[in-house]
Design brief:
The structure is a single chain. This protein is mostly helical. 95% of the residues lie in helices and 0% in strands. α1 runs antiparallel to α2. The model has no long low-confidence stretch (mean pLDDT 88).
Length: 126
């Protein structure tokens, strides 16, 4: 009886550990994807801003200042649009990761139910 309990306990522990490892892997992959998206957006924003500042430093007259003002407004709009697009991508990655974690939890719950039901079904069948 003790041996049977130990075997079931160790099987459950192994299964729980494997599921935790899978969950951690899924979460880290999602985090890595989100960080890459944010870094890419930040790099692009930095390049655009640096180019704008360089152009602003070369402004010498009122006409150039008006042109710079328009470019600044355009740059702000583009950066806002890019931020929204990146946010939407991040939400999609997060949602996909959450769905994967939920599926993993359902698999774990089903496996635990099966592990508990199998010995009971065996006892009832005898």
């Amino acid at each position: 009886m003790t041996q049977q309990f130990n075997n079931q306990f160790f099987a459950f522990t192994k299964q729980a550990t494997e599921s935790a490892f899978k969950a951690q892997t899924l979460a880290l992959k999602g985090l890595e994807t989100v960080a890459a998206l944010q870094l890419k957006a930040f790099e692009q924003q930095t390049r655009d801003s640096a180019a704008f500042v360089a152009e602003a430093l070369e402004t010498r007259d009122a006409d150039a200042l008006r042109t710079l003002w328009e470019k600044g407004a355009t740059l702000g709009r583009e950066q806002a649009e890019r931020a929204v697009a990146v946010s939407q991508e991040i939400i999609a990655v997060t949602q996909k990761t959450a769905e994967s974690l939920q599926a993993l939890a359902q698999e774990q719950r089903q496996a635990a139910n099966d592990a508990v039901a199998a010995p009971v079904a065996k006892k009832v069948a005898k």
